[in-house]
Design goal:
The chain contains 12 helices and 15 strands. The protein has 362 residues and is α/β, with parallel strands linked by helices. Helix 8 packs parallel to helix 10 and helix 8 crosses helix 12. The protein is globular and about 65 Å long. The termini are far apart. The chain binds NADP nicotinamide-adenine-dinucleotide phosphate (NAP) and guanosine-5'-diphosphate-alpha-D-mannose. The site of NADP nicotinamide-adenine-dinucleotide phosphate has 28 residues, from helix 1, helix 6 and strand 5.
């Protein structure tokens, strides 16, 4: 039985990956942070009871307290677990927040990656343990080529992107220096019903559901023109695994090859809850009006703009499709929005108390 260690197991990707690997017959170990509030929701509550028993009561699933910034802790855990595969998904993953916490983002996203690679090396596991690093399309930032592929030069635009560049290169450096199977998945944006609520897609689907059910009046957004290559997280975790099963340690771009604007995403999400939007005005004056009622349901608030923006991201998944046999369009953009809205309509329907204000949301 193969053993996998997942850092960031409580996050969107970590929770899907844990399920995926358990189904493949792995013994799965996950690192969770000590928190004063409950942080294992994605590992339990979102699953149906039947599924929950697969994960929570699974004798092959083990959680360990830890933090990737604590080198002693990760070295001990890796030494005890002796994993065949490590998926380093732990990160301060919010781009806007990285402008407020650049130092912390550096500690987790850059130094945290080094701590894991160095632990594998010090423990003499370089021949045994394969390491997957969660790299990102944010590395391309101010894009130097469209679409972006494995050879496109990087130009990060945020403390997050800059910290992740260190993670990318140190992973490649350990591969070249110590002959380790250490690889980067350069993943473009991927979303799901488990997406954190302050990322734009989830912020929109939750708001659309709440507005449709009379529990919220308006959605405040930042840059509506921003373009992203949005895929479905469940499809993307499969690719993480495929990258580690490949015969050669190589880096891969994972994307759908399609790009849509934030405005388009909002349009479609509102359509799914039965609200047709008409967009009027430009720039910070732009508004989304409910055609049926004339009410303003979307407004632009500059506080959601970023000091430096990544205007567009579009990936070229040819290498992953060709060498890994991965299907980049298994879930279409339309299906992704539909899945997320359906889940949030249900969640909001069950909400008794609705938070008074939503504009703290980044
Ligand atoms: P996420 O939902 O924000 O999850 C991040 C995970 O990292 C959480 O489990 C979090 O724990 C954990 N974490 C944060 N700081 C940590 C620390 N110091 N030590 C240990 N664990 C820590 O992110 P995601 O969307 O699943 O993304 C997974 C990874 O892929 C991240 O590295 C992200 O940067 C990268 N990525 C994501 C995308 C995307 O579109 N989703 C695209 C490209 C790359 P808590 O639950 O305790 O906060
Ligand atoms: N979060 C947020 N909130 N973003 C908004 C809003 C808003 O109210 N309004 C517009 N946007 C725009 C952002 O300015 C950005 O251009 C785009 O929507 C997407 O923002 P996010 O959903 O926060 O994601 P991201 O692209 O910045 O980062 C995500 O994808 C990266 C891969 O490209 C994160 O998951 C990163 O961890 C990941 O590496």
């Amino acid at each position: 039985m193969k053993k996998a260690l997942i850092t960031g197991v409580t996050g969107q990707d970590g929770s899907y990956l844990a399920e995926f690997l358990l189904e493949k017959g792995y013994e799965v170990h996950g690192i969770i942070r000590r928190s004063s509030s409950y942080n294992q929701e994605r590992l339990e509550d979102i699953l149906t009871e039947e599924e929950a028993s697969v994960l929570v009561n699974n004798k092959n699933f083990h959680l360990h307290y830890g933090d990737v910034t604590d080198a002693l802790n990760v070295t001990r855990l890796i030494g005890e677990i002796q994993p065949d595969e490590i998926y380093n998904l732990a990160a301060q993953s919010h781009v806007r927040v990285s402008f407020d916490m650049p130092g912390y983002t550096l500690d987790v996203d850059a130094k945290g990656t080094l701590n894991i690679l160095e632990a594998v090396r010090i423990l003499g596991l370089t021949d045994k343990t394969r390491v997957y690093q969660a790299s990102t399309s944010e590395l391309f930032g101010k894009v130097q080529e469209v679409p972006q592929k494995e050879t496109t030069p990087f130009y990060p635009r945020s403390p997050y992107g800059v910290a992740k560049i260190y993670g990318f290169w140190i992973t490649k450096n350990y591969r070249e220096s110590y002959n380790m199977f250490a690889v980067n998945g350069i993943l473009f944006n991927h979303e799901s019903e488990r997406r954190g609520e302050t990322f734009v897609t989830r912020k929109i689907t939750l708001a659309a559901a709440r507005i449709a059910q009379g529990k919220q009046k308006k959605l405040l957004l930042g840059n509506l023109d921003s373009l992203r290559d949005w895929g479905y997280a469940k499809d993307y975790v499969e690719c993480m695994w495929l990258i580690l099963q490949h015969e050669k340690p190589e880096d891969f771009v994972i994307a759908t090859g399609e790009m849509h604007s934030v405005r388009e995403f909002a349009d479609l999400a509102f359509k799914h809850v039965g609200i047709e939007i008409e967009w009027i005005g430009h720039g910070i004056e732009e508004k989304g009006i409910n055609k049926a009622t004339g009410e303003i349901v979307v407004e632009v608030d500059p506080k959601f703009f970023r000091p430096a923006e990544v205007e567009q991201l579009l990936g070229d998944p040819t290498k992953a499709r060709t060498l890994l046999g991965w299907n980049p369009t298994r879930t279409s953009f339309e299906d992704l929005v539909r899945i997320m809205v359906a889940a949030d309509m249900m969640k909001v329907g069950n909400e008794d108390i609705v938070k008074k204000t939503f504009d703290y949301v980044i």
